[in-house]
Amino acid sequence: MGLFDFFKKDKENQEQRESLDKGLEKTKTSFFDQLSKAVVGKSTVDEEVLDDLETVLVHADVGIDTTVKVIDRIEKRVARDKYVGTSELDRILREEIAELLQKNDSGSTAVLERSDRAGGQPFVIMVVGVNGVGKTTTIGKLAHRFHSAGKKVVLGAADTFRAAAVDQLIIWGNRVGVPVISHGMNTDPASVAYDAVQKGVDMQADVVIIDTAGRLHNKVNLMNELSKIKRVMQKVIPDAPHEVLLVLDGSTGQNAFLQAKEFTKATEVTALAITKLDGTAKGGVVIGISDQLNVPVRYIGVGEKMTDLQLFDRRTFVDSLFSKK
């Protein structure tokens, strides 16, 4: 890496951090306002402070089970260290949340780095999620991310239930400059997926991203459809898909968690993308979903720009969450 490349990369990292800080602003403001009220007039972390902290975490949509786990960890530290001042609470909370997110170390590994497939076969990502969570937009931003890194990308418009989804993906493909395989609305999704993967093989693509329908009202049909798509893709590449990415809307808080549980019952989810964190004070949902589902968060969406879909890094996320102006 030359000196120019180093400064360019450093500038990109700085811009991403600024975007993350801005995206988490509503969550941080709400969180620290409530945390300040919890410790006002207190010098030590006692039972009352812990009760108030529990309320703060629940309001941030960390979730009941994960909140109980965090409070239990802090209680043990307070008991072990004998005296813990409220001035240290930020640091302790930061450390415990980072520890809780440790499983996401694997999630912060760039798919970009893993998309060079042996034998020249593309890395296949099947994207799932209910309508309205930003699934198709996330695919477009992923395509931009890969394309900007010099990867050959193919998109498959297999959400044939919604005409808008097919059209939207085609628009994204044109915007990014990557081919989109589409058979239109009300066509067989598995057939679209098959043709997209075959196109990826034929053009020696690095990545194939398949959009899928997001209907949860009939889980059995959804499960059958996703299973069929997998089976058909495996006729071209036996171990496809290599990633099943579930997209969730972070602004819906615990509803996102409930959707995640339903989808993990319907298909094997290997990674998560949590979108729309910039429009909510419920950014704590990232912590709860990751902890409870034991599935790595791969990406987070913190804005409208193409570059605002960021690789999730637990240390950077926690640092940003606890940074103050």
H-E string: HHHHHHEHEHEHEHEHEHEEH
Strand content: 5-15%
What topology, given as strand order, has the largest sheet? Answer: 3-2-4-1-5-6-7-8
Q: Which consecutive residue ranges, at least 5 long each, have pLDDT under 50?
A: none
Helix content: 40-55%
User: Quick one: overall form?
Assistant: elongated
Tally of separate helices: 13
The chain-level mean pLDDT equals 84
CA radius of gyration is 21 Å
Structural class: alpha/beta
Biggest pleated-sheet summary: 8 strands, mixed
Q: Whole-Å distance between the termini?
A: 33 Å
- Count of DSSP E strands? 8
What does this structure look like?
- The chain has 325 residues and is an alpha/beta fold.
- Helices cover 52% and strands 12% of the residues.
- It contains 13 helices and 8 strands.
- It has an 8-stranded mixed beta sheet, sandwiched between helices.
- Helix 3 (47-59) packs antiparallel against helix 4 (64-81) and helix 9 runs parallel beside helix 10.
- The two termini are 33 Å apart.
- The relative contact order is 0.17.
List the helices and strands and how they pair.
Blueprint: H1 3-23, H2 25-39, H3 47-59, H4 64-81, H5 89-100, H6 111-114, E1 123-128, H7 135-148, E2 153-157, H8 163-176, E3 180-181, H9 189-202, E4 207-211, H10 219-233, E5 243-249, H11 254-266, E6 271-275, H12 285-293, E7 297-301, E8 309-311, H13 314-321
Parallel strand pairs: 1-4, 1-5, 2-3, 2-4, 5-6, 6-7
Antiparallel strand pairs: 7-8
Helix pairs in contact: 2-3, 3-4, 4-12, 7-8, 9-10, 11-12
